[in-house]
Every structure is written in C-alpha cells, then in structure tokens.
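Here is one chain, start to finish.
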Amino acid sequence: MSSIDGGLWAWLKPIRQHYKRALHICRVENSAGSGMPDVEGQLKDYGQFWLELKACAWPARKTTQIRPKIRPAQVEWISRRAKAGGNVWLLVQVGTGKTRERFLIHGAYVEELDTGVTEPRLRQMSYAVKDRLSVFRVMFSL
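Its structure:
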C-alpha cells in the first residue's frame, strides 16, 4: 500500500468507533497473495467484504481518462472474486485537498477502471463517498 493509499486507510479506520465490536476490519499485508485487496473485514449480521484502496490525481483536461494504478494481479483477484459473488470494492480517491473526491466502485468494474475512464463514466459507475459511514451503507445496502 502506498503512502497515499495509506492515507485512505487512515481516513477509513475510525469507522470502527461507530460499529464497535460489530466490525472487524484490518489491513492486509500479504506477499503470498499479491492481488489481494488492502482491507478485509466482517460486519456482524452482514458478512465479509474486501476493499482495495487507490488514489490518483485529477487529469488536467476533462477528456483525459482517470486511471488509478492497479496491478494486473489486483485486477485478476478483484475480478474473479466479484464474478464469484464476493463483496469486493475499490475505494478510489481522486485529487487532494479541496478538489479531493472519493468514489466507491464495485469490483465488477475493475477491468474497465484499469483501462481508464472519463470523469462522467467514473461518476456513473460509482457511489460518491461523503463520509466513512456511506462506504458501509453502500457495501451492505444499509
């Protein structure tokens, strides 16, 4: 996990205070499974989830595609898990400071995201994330 993606982890992890013991969430540091997402968790009564954290800059032009750096092994792992019915997502932060926006994207879109998407397509394929709680509301339809 890069330091930028680590910033997303630092932003996300205080959600534990809201869910208390109903949520078990941890960073995955796994050299054996190079494509495995950054975060694995379990929410009581709702199930397991996987979350890949990505960050990238806004392109200079609106027509330039947004393409977070996703390794081929990550694309394969996320795609296979999504196709098998897994609850796997990408939390993508685009921009920094006042221009920063966060998007939650289901793993079924990882291959498309990896090839690059325009800003309108990114907004269409994702859920806007306004706060930490909205991540879990979307992942579990709460």
